[in-house]
Amino acid sequence: VVTSGPAGERRIAAADFLTPAASPLGAGEIVTALVFPVVAGSGSAYVKQAIPATCYPLSAVAAAVTLKAGKVGDCRVAVTGVFARPRRLAAVESAVTGVAPSRGVLAKAATAAGAAGDAAITDLAGSGEYRLHLLAVQAERVLVEALKDAGVHLE
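Below the sequence we write its predicted structure tokens.
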């Protein structure tokens, strides 16, 4: 994560940025870029359902996968809009990592995403229950797209 502020530009590791703790951004600092390394056999995707009045995400999910010997060797999935702060979805990542990708595996991972609901936001745009359902749908969709980007086409 690349940021810019009064002290100039700096980089923050995604693991340090996507935590439930306080934001690592300093006063007057904003995110200006996200940098991802390009790795052979890898793919990424992003899906977002915007709140029409604001264009902020009701739920948005990003995924990056790397394939090794026909299996998912590495998987990173993050969500924003559903919880008070963006977060990684470790249960989804573990459900996909180390196995050959299939619709069944992705459906199981999506179930893990929807069960991550320990404080989903409820507001005028949508209930926490709706956001969790949307998260599960988007988690499966974003994994399908990331795998497609890596060269795996599931039926």
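Residues 128-149 form the longest helix (22 residues).
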